[in-house]
Structure formats: C-alpha cells, structure tokens
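This entry is retained here.
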Amino acid sequence: MCPSLRAHAPWAVLLLFTLVVPPALAQPQEVPTFEGGEVVVSGRRPEPVRSSPAYVTVLQGEQLRRLGFQTVGEALRYLAEAYVRESYGGPGGLLQPSVRGSSPQQVLVLLDGVPLNATAQLGVNLATLSLAEVDRVEVLRGPYSAIWGSGALGGVVHVVTRPAGRLRLRAAYGGASESVAALSVGWQTGAAGYSLTAEHLGSAGYQPNGDASRWTGILHLSWEPTAESRWSLQVHHTDARYGLPGATNSFCYPCPDRQADARTVVQVGWSRAHQGGSLDRGRLWWYGDRLDYSAVGYASSSRGEAFGGDWQQVVRLHGGGALTFGGEWHQASYRFSDSFGGGFDRTVQVGAAFVQYDVPVGERTLLGVGLRYDLHSGYGGQLNPRLGFVHLVSEALRVRGAVGRTFRGPTFAELYFPGCSNPNLRPEAAWSADLGLEYAPGGRWVGRVNTFYTDAQDLIVGGCNPQNVGSARIVGASAELSGSPSDGWQVLANVTWTDGLNRTEGTRLLRVPSWTASLVLRRDLGPQGAVALLARYVGERDDLDFSSFPAARVTLPGHVTVGLRYEVATSGLWLVVGVDNLLGARYETLRGYPAPGRTVFVQVTSRR
C-alpha cells in the first residue's frame, strides 16, 4: 500500500462503517442487551460485554484461582489474540502482555481503574499483580481501547478487585518450593463494610539465585449513606525481593544480581445513581513504585510517583441511548540514580477529556462513537476517535466491528535518560480495525471468528538515541469457543494467527508468534469434584541473542505444554492437585530463558 493511500485508509473505513449502518429511526428502540455480565473497560461505564462493539474477554478471578494460577500474567497465557512474554516464573518473574502483536509498552494496565503505565518504563510486569481478591480481569483488544489514552495502542488489561466479605484461607505448595499463603477477612453491616487481605508468594527458584519472595496486601472500605450513593477507599500494596540469574548464555550465568520492587496504590472514589439510570462518578488516586537493582560493582535505584483524579457522568437518553463524558488529570514523576553518578529527575502532567455516544440504530443495531483528547506537558496534544457497531443478525448470530486511532507516549527513560534519550520524541500512533462474527445459541456457549488489522507509525526504535522511524503492519485472525456446550462441561478454546511486519527493516516483528492456540477443558465430577485439562501451543517467533555483539537475530521453535487439575471438595475445604508441563517439554520463553520442566502443586482453599 502506498503511503498516501495508507494515510487515507482509516478515514475510508470510518466512512464505510457510516454508510453500512442504516440511519436512526424516528423512534429508536432499546439498546440491544444480549447476554453476559457487565464490564466497564469497553466504554468507561457498566455495559453488557456482548452488546458492546469492543472485543472484550472477561476472566473470573475465582475460576483462575481454582485452576492454580497465582498472578494475572499466568492467566493471560490462555487468551485469544494475547501472548505473555516471560523470563523466569513465580513471584520474581517477568510477565509482560502483548495484544495483537503489540509490545508490552503498548498495553495499558489498569488496577481498579488506576493507570499503572504512568511510571512504567518497559511495560507493566503482570507478575507483580497477584490474583488475591481479584474479582475479574477484563481484557480489551483493538481500536476500542482509544478512549483510555496513552499506552492503549494494543489493548487494555483491567484488573478489578473486590471485598472479601468473609473469612477465607488459601495455601499452596509445589515444585521449586513455590508456596502460597493467603488470609482474607471481611465484614458488612448496614451502610458500612471492610475487607482486608494478606498474601505471601515464595519460591526457591528453578535456577541458581532464582529465589523470590512477594507480599501483597489489600484493604477495602466502603460506605453507602443512601441507596443511590457510595464512597470507597482502596489500598493495594505489593513488595518483593528476588534474584536475577540472567540468561543461560550470558557471560556471568548464574549471575549474582538481586532486585527489589514495591508498589502502593491508594484511591478514594464516590458514585451517585440518578433516576432514569444516569450516573456520576469521581475518583482521586495516588501511587508510588520503586525498583532497586544491585550487581557486582554496580547499583541503581528508581522511584516513580503519580497522582491524579477523574470525573465522568453517564446520561441515559430518550430512546435508549447513552452519553458518557468526563475528564481526567494526573501528574507523574520519575527519579533514577546509579552508583556511577548518572541519573535524572523529571515530572510531567497529562490532562484529558473524552466523550462516548452509544445509540440504537433500528431494532437490531447498536452504534458507538467516541472521541478523546490528551494534552501532555512534554509532547503536546493527541486526538483519538473510535467508531464501532454491533448488529444482531438473528437471536443467536451477531456481527461486530470497530475502527479507531490509538497512541503511546514516550516513557521517561526514552525522553530523559542521560546520554541515551531524545526529548523530541513524538508518540507512537496507530490506526486499527477489526470485524468479526459471534454465535451464541441459547446463551450457554459463545463462538467467535474475528479479523484485525493495525497500521502503526512513528514507532520508537533504537537504543542511544531513540528515534521515531519505525513503521509496522499487523494483520491477524482468531477463532474462539467459550462457555458450557453441555451439562457438566466448561471450555475455553482459541487459535490465533498473527502476521507482524516491521516495515522499517522488512522483517517479522520480534517476539510475535505466528500461531498460538489454547485449550482449557473442565469436567464436573458431581457436586464435590472436577477435573481440568490445560493445553497451550506457541509457534515459532523471532528473538534476539544478546550473547554476541551486536545481538544476533534467531528464531525460537514452537512448543506445546499440557497441564492437569483435579479438584475435590470436603465439608469445609476445596483441594486442588495440579501438574504443569506434564509432558516435560523443553523450550525457551525468550532466548536464554529456559522454562521449567514438569512440576506438581497442591492447593487448599477454605469454603466458608
């Protein structure tokens, strides 16, 4: 595609969607509500997941914990159109999300609505997000993420926690002395309630100097002075210390390096519901994070801090439409220093306004139009539109599609790191679109076939000094099946094909597998037990081998992993016995980072 045609293609798609969707009737019908639970990540307001133009997958926290997963990163491995880049495992590992071929820096991670990317330099490490008290994980893929601003070029991962509401204990032990110990207490009376959770994850590591220890604490306080209003206070803290043995092909392996990280998120929120379904919501938040690194003859320290607030209103319109609008502001700062005397200390401010209009068009179609404007103190303004639709072909079959512009602003390190930065960097930007079919007979299971396309420009490439010279094209397709096709069976199955091209170099995008496939199959064995099979395939992908200089490009072969779970319930406990990598597959997650072999674990959770 020539540059001029490529520049006008997104506008042509917008025009095509406008022409395909018929004009609104004089008397619009109610917004189509198909089936499924509500999410907030797609439109910044609660809405049924399957009546949204966005491609959203919801993972329930209780189900994830029952499968033996401990972190958000472990759970995302089994999603369509998502891939987790990992080095090591457990509480000291590095698990970073890639959505539709994006880099980890291009995926926005929200913790109860707070954007953790504000101070992240290499993307958010999902191994730092425990599944303790996680109610659900909402994963938004594609152009409808435009309403969330910087960092959502590939998609959004929204982690939603919930109050415990009762006394609950959970413990697990497995290979490499990996252990879990968690305690939750909660209480609710009248208009007030509280919940407190403490969890420890530990591991001796699969490699020398691979030990790790991570603590997580969560506090929820709530007060409902009236039936229409609610106030809440949330505190989420995590703290870890662990070893970094390095890649097996590095000069110092096993390296003696050590690292420690911590993050505290505090937010106060309020909401008020109005007659007719309208809603006001506001929030103030603060978080701080740190990362300390030490090696022989060298040490560094990083400190990040961000605080801000947002407000929005949802107005229910005559005829079934909804108008969502609001604004947000935050200030972020980052300070880095090392034992060689280098470092920097910088602060930026970001303000944004957004509006989203959802309207029924006829009896079977919902149209959504959104716009967001961000103003950054460093690189200026960014305008990002989005447009999507859902059309109900029949009671069971629907078609959905969207197009939008998303972006990622440069990080503190890319802008200000001494001797290896560029303060004139522009944000990365991308136009993307998707179109697919969804079949949901009877509401018990859902099948999806989806296609997606991304055209990214001004990608930030190069080390010292980074430049806006990159261009990439990503095209792909996926097929998914989820739900309960028959009594006693639950299934989550998918296959994804992704073709990512680095136009600048004429090569495949690094660390983007051409094919991935996953299967989670669970069979109930009566009311007191169940058995589950977990299988995953990751195809070949290009990577870099840093054992030589300059780093050599290599291709890692594909691999298959299989896991089993057996669940049994007693009067007061739920016991899970699991085996991971049952077939003992040998493979590298990244070049120089071999995955562990066969491991066994046992998990016990109270049912009270």
Notes: Confidence is low (pLDDT under 50) at residues 1-36.
